Amino acid sequence: MFTPSTSSTTLLDRLTDEITSFYENPTAVVPQVTAEQIRTHLQSFDFCKPIDAERVFEEVQYMMRNWNVQITHPRYFGLYNPAPLLTAVIAEALAAVYNPQMAAWSHAPAANEIERHTLRHIAQKIGLPLEALACNFTAGGSEANHSAVLVALAHNFPQTLEDGLWALPQRPIIYASELAHNSFDKIVKHTGLGLDGLRIVPVNDSLQMDVNALRILIKQDQNAGRKPFMVVGTAGITATGTIDPLTAIADLCRQYDLWFHVDAAWAGAAVFSDTIRPALAGIELADSVTVDAHKWFNLTMGAGMFFTRHAGSNARAFTVRADYMPPSEEAVSVPYLTTMQWSRRFIGLKLFMALAELGEDQLARMIEYQAGLGAYFREQLKQEGWIVVNETPLPVVNFTHPRIRMSAVSVDGVLTKLYAEGDAWISSVTLRGEKVFRMCITNFKTTRADVDSLMDQLNRLVSE
Ligand SMILES: *Cc1c(COP(=O)(O)O)cnc(C)c1O
Fold first, then answer.
1. What SUPFAM superfamilies does the database record attribute to this sequence (predicted)?
2. CB atoms within 10 A of CB 199
């Protein structure tokens, strides 16, 4: 036996201390640091001689606490990065302890069945039929979206699995709105569909996919001899939190025999909320769905989910022969033959534990609480003379100020000062040619006082 010199057991107490104290005493939201500063600091780690494990731990702790944007802070109003539930942190540690190999079902029956049980519950909440359902955990929404395109290709053009895309007589076309997630730009590059194979559909005044424009584009492509095969509807657009008209898109897809994918990476968790669920109507009609567990389920990265009602096409897309892999029972779906990854972390444990521990009602309340805070901020903005430019039941607020529209100050100018003060983080997006602020509630620990503090700060900075 080889015993490495790391004194890991003494670190376990430090770890548990850090897990509790970090969230109780958060540091500044925005770090003031340069790459140069960090690189110089890292020079002391030349990996030649061993360093005392406690010192290494302290170094990591220092760098992580001081030199990152603290997305778990209650005044991080940013991208869809949640403050994780403590259960998720514990589940991460447990997953690492057992380190099950998910690829072969027969290597990890317990872990695979825990994931399957959890995913099928979510599928049911979405409204997908369980027979012929294929579902799996992914690294994130990008991988789930990528899986969707691969399965849609296998479904519509099974011959390409043998012959490749180039053998198709007509060019396959995907449709997504101008506000769809840019992972689709990568995916069409990776799959050989090419950026010219991704048709960008404009959005309407409500910042949702314009379904009439979609219909016209589909017809144009058909008339030009191309082959439309897939439409992506987004539920919870990254920039605006708006939701594409999913039922209308589903109708159109049925009419033209197109694969309907719903990218609900962030807002998918809201299927658990009776009050928000109606806004997602139509998601149950999808051929495939993306939901991230590491967004609104308030779990740690990375945890995405992919669902499709076409298990046969899913299996065709991913199956291979590998003699060195252990065989599995007939009746189970074998991860390495039905998903993009091979060796993979036990991603689903944290969602299983969180759902089991919270129960659906508390999960719904956690989501609705955050939506309520978003609505509260909208009201505050309007009362304080700001202009809100998006409408959504989800907690993403796009806004600007008359002084910005008059060019007395700029969005970037305000953001630079906000970041320099370090006390809160919001971002900006360009909508209809206008740069506006984007604020999102991503933390169930955020309070009205945190939102008020941001409001005060913005009022001050916009009038300077
Ligand atoms: C976040 C997001 C993605 C990408 O998901 P990752 O988990 O970051 O890979 C895709 N689509 C939408 C709508 C998203 O919000």
1. PLP-dependent transferases
2. 18
Q: Which of 59-63, 180-184, 333-337 has the lowest mean pLDDT?
A: 333-337
pLDDT digits (tens, 9 = 90+) for 22-70: 887 767 888 889 999 999 999 999 999 989 889 999 999 999 999 999 9
For ligand 1, the distance from its centroid to the CA atom of residue 265, given in whole angstroms, is: 5
Which residues lie below 8 Å from residue 176, measured CB to CB, with a gap of 6+? 184, 198, 199, 200, 201, 231, 232, 234
Show me where the domains of the chain are located. Answer: 9-68, 93-354, 360-463
d(CA 234, CA 212): 16
Ligand 1 binding pocket includes 266 (Cβ within 6 Å): yes
CATH class of this structure's domain 93-354: alpha beta
Q: Report how far ligand 1's centroid is from the alpha carbon of 296 (Å).
A: 11
What does the DSSP assignment read for 68-127?
S--TTSTTB--SS-PPPPHHHHHHHHHHHHH----SSGGG-HHHHHHHHHHHHHHHHHHT
The verdict on the CB of residue 140 being under 6 Å from ligand 1 is yes
User: Does the beta carbon of 234 lie inside 6 Å of ligand 1?
Assistant: yes
Q: What pLDDT does 6 receive?
A: 67
Centre of ligand 1 from the C-alpha of residue 268, in Å: 11
For ligand 1, say whether the CB of 137 is within 6 Å of any of its atoms.
Answer: no
Q: Is the CB of 176 under 6 A from ligand 1?
A: no
**pLDDT tens digits, 338-382:** 999 999 999 999 999 999 999 999 999 999 999 999 999 999 999
The share of the chain scoring above pLDDT 90, in percent, equals 88
Ligand 1 in reach of 183 Cβ (< 6 A): yes
Q: Is the CB of 314 under 6 A from ligand 1?
A: no
**Is 80 near ligand 1, meaning CB less than 6 Å away?**
yes
* Other CB atoms within 10 Å distance of the CB of residue 322: 10
Single-letter amino acid, residue 26:
P
Distances (CA, A) of 275 to 39, 82, 338, 368, 378: 48, 21, 35, 8, 18
> Of 222, 218, 205, 135, nearest to 176 (Cα)?
218
Instruction: Yes or no: say if 298 and 82 are a contact pair by the CB < 8 Å rule.
Output: yes
292 lines ligand 1 (CB under 6 A): yes
Nearest CA to ligand 1 atom 14: 265
Whole-prediction pTM = 0.95
pLDDT in the model for residue 347 = 97
CATH code for the structural domain at 360-463? 3.90.1150.170
| Burial category of 25 from C-beta neighbours within 10 Å (exposed 0-12, middle 13-18, buried 19 and up) | exposed
For ligand 1, whether the C-beta of 272 sits within 6 Å is no
- Cα–ligand 1 centroid distance for 285 (angstroms): 21
